[in-house]
Design goal:
Shape: globular
Number of helices: 7
Low-confidence stretches: none
Radius of gyration: 17 Å
Distance between the termini: 31 Å
Strand order of the largest sheet: 7-6-5-8-9-10
Mean pLDDT: 93
Strand content: 15-25%
Number of strands: 10
Order of helices and strands: HEEEEHEHEEEHEHEHH
Structural class: alpha/beta
Helix content: 25-40%
Length: 210
């Protein structure tokens, strides 16, 4: 599954590698990769692979799940489609409470004690995912863990998830996509080591121009 999803994401440029002309993140960090998993929604074949893959991961890793909760906004559609495939209710968590109406931060029905899986599109440093998990826990939910389409596998993210006691399983990851990108001639084989060097320490720019 990891390689199938990796090929899908590369094909539609949802994950796009450009090691010789790096992108600049909002933080100022230079990155050889651009990610936009929203593109999976507009390609029917890829969308089917992703949503069926997420459903499979959830069934295998969180068989007791009762509710899916998407992260706002990228995880909402994936939670809805996967929930439909699995016959499960879904909702989503806003980045902050609304300033009008019922002032909800959690949208959809959630009962205290319900077993929840969070659906996320991408895990990098883990911060936004952990915030969502904390909101759900404060509301009384039992968060079994998260599923995501893609994870960088950055040490900072792994450490933060572990410290927050949050389990994550992903359809594919940075290492697999880098490997497939080389196999499929999106990048040169020698670039894989550069990409992994970035993954290991994003603030170290020594991989640029190598």
């Amino acid at each position: 599954m990891e390689k199938i999803i990796a090929k899908d994401l590369l094909k539609i440029k949802a994950v796009f590698f450009r090691p010789d002309e790096p992108f600049t993140w909002a933080s100022g960090i230079k990155s050889p990769v651009y990610c936009d998993n929203r593109l999976t929604l507009t390609d029917v074949e890829v969308r089917n692979d992703v949503e069926n893959g997420l459903a499979t991961l959830i069934k295998e890793n969180y068989p007791d799940v009762e509710v899916l909760m998407g992260t706002s906004t990228a995880g909402i559609a994936h939670a809805a489609i996967t929930g439909h495939l699995m016959g499960l209710p879904m909702g989503y968590v806003r980045s902050g409470a609304k300033d009008h109406g019922r002032n909800n931060q959690i949208e959809g029905k959630l009962l205290p004690g319900q077993k929840v899986v969070v659906v996320e599109d991408l895990i990098s440093t883990g911060g936004s995912c952990i915030e969502v998990v904390n909101v759900l826990r404060e509301a009384g939910a039992e968060v079994l863990g998260t599923v995501s389409i893609f994870t960088y596998g950055m040490q900072k993210g792994l450490d933060r998830l572990a410290a927050a006691n949050v389990k994550n399983v992903s359809l594919t990851n940075f290492d697999v996509i880098a490997e497939v990108a080389a196999e499929e001639n999106y990048i040169k084989p020698v670039d894989v080591a550069r990409l992994i060097k970035f993954r290991n320490n994003p603030s170290d720019e020594s991989w640029i121009g190598k």
